[in-house]
Amino acid sequence: MTDSPTPYGSDPPGTASLRKSLGVVDGFAIAASSTAATTSIGIGLGVTAGAVGLHLPIIMLLGFLPILGIASAYSRLNRVEPNMGSGYVWVGRSLSPWLGFLVGWIGIVSTVVFLSYTTTVTGSALLQLAGEGGLHTLAGLRLDPDSTAQSTVLGIAVLIAVTFTAITGIRSAANLQKYLLVFEYVVLLGFCGYGLVVGPHPFSLDWINPFTIPSGQQLAQGLLLSVFCYWGFESSFSVNEEVRDPQDASRAGLITLFTMLGLFLLGSFAFQRVLSLDELTGHGAQGLTYFGDRLADQPLAALPLIALTFSAVASLQSGVIPTVRGMFAMSRDRTLGPLWTKVSPRFGTPAAGTVAIGCVAAAVAVLSLVIPKVGDLILASVNAIGVVVSVYYALTALAAAARFRGLLRESPSEALRAVVLPVLSAAVLFGLGGYLCWSFYTSADHFAISPDNGWFMLFCPAAMLLTGVAAAAWAKWMRKSPYFVTGRSLTPAEPAVTEAA
């Protein structure tokens, strides 16, 4: 074998490209659906209240602050190097290819876990909706929305449908999500606004006082759970090669983030005005249904549940879309196999990869049946994802600080946004994740598959990280990916085909 001036062995290979068809509103629809405010409010607030009690508003605000620094890093990096691989590309170039691969891998695995439990949540929401409509048994089987088995089977059917929609074109998927979002937000604003006014529980300054949270562990867990609620705003950056102007991806991500802050604060205050702490923590995946029942009679009381169902369906679809795009970027660097860069000539989308990721998510959803209750499954998944998301957000922020560190001498105002805020945000997220992992480790003396077992809660994110190291080693030494030689990611060799608006 002869030496070559490039790590590819010859000229760099041409790479597939996707159609440019999206604008700011489309990017916002994808990112907002991925963040899934309705699902986060309807389910995530109850889970978070279990950690911090009646301090949801201040936890949502505090969790927003480091995420704002992360968003600043994403926006600045996207300005100089728009790439659907986002953190995988930026961290690999600015810090280390190994860390870059790990960022990409965490994004894949955490989204697959997210898709698996959202599949179950979607099925649970549909079963709740059937119960509200008077359908409590089917073919002699009692329908139970808290049954992981029943919810998973029904949710997988929905996952198949939204995967097909994602295949047929990202523009059609974004249009569907726009309509779903409009309905969700109208219902959320109406019910939460009404609950804020008529709720029986008085406002309390304690709700916005973090110093009355009982322990540091509860504060750390609450903050990571709130970070999880904001997770997904960066989905707009995963489609930045399909946006007509790549900077529209940054605008969509920031608009999404501030929209989520407003909705989460509104939902937090409204839920605490209407529900007691026991009601908040006791209804789990059915929290939004109970909230609606407290504020209205049927059929109006069913509207929040319908909104939750729409949110879960949209987040399934928007979870598939950015994950496949990230794998597309990794595949064209040969850090993943060639399956993920196969573009459908009919639809202009990575159809094969979309089908594959849907199948993997369905398989993980089936494996999650070892945890028999939906609420327990949600708690285990959210904690695991919260830890690993804090890692890949923090690494992306450090990549921005490393790349733009020269601004510290040239432009203090620009350095504040591109270096200082990302570094502070990364330090907060690393600290939260590390503290929570230590508290998981010290809270148990044996292993059990239960969201109440600290070692199990530590095992889940550890497994995600360790499999990433193994996959990186395979990509470097078996696939011989040039990414590990150059630290650079490929971009499409030819301009992408532009689809008519």
List the helices and strands and how they pair.
Blueprint: H1 24-35, H2 37-52, H3 56-80, H4 87-94, H5 97-132, E1 137-138, E2 141-142, H6 148-168, H7 170-198, H8 216-230, H9 235-238, H10 247-274, H11 277-282, H12 287-295, H13 303-332, H14 351-367, H15 374-403, H16 407-410, H17 412-442, H18 454-477, H19 483-486
Antiparallel strand pairs: 1-2
Helix pairs in contact: 1-7, 1-10, 1-13, 2-8, 2-10, 2-13, 3-8, 3-10, 3-15, 3-17, 4-5, 4-15, 5-6, 5-13, 5-14, 5-15, 5-18, 6-13, 6-14, 7-10, 7-13, 8-15, 8-17, 12-13, 13-14, 15-17, 15-18, 17-18
Can you tell me about this structure?
The chain has 501 residues and is mainly alpha-helical. It has a single domain (24-477), classed as Amino acid/polyamine transporter I. The chain has helices at residues 24-35, 37-52, 56-80, 87-94, 97-132, 148-168, 170-198, 216-230, 235-238, 247-274, 277-282, 287-295, 303-332, 351-367, 374-403, 407-410, 412-442, 454-477, 483-486; strands at residues 137-138, 141-142. The chain has a two-stranded antiparallel sheet. Helix 3 (56-80) packs across helix 15, helix 5 (97-132) runs antiparallel to helix 15 and helix 13 crosses helix 14. The longest helix is centred in the N-terminal third of the chain and has 36 residues, at 97-132. Mean pLDDT is 84; it is low at 1-15 and 493-501.
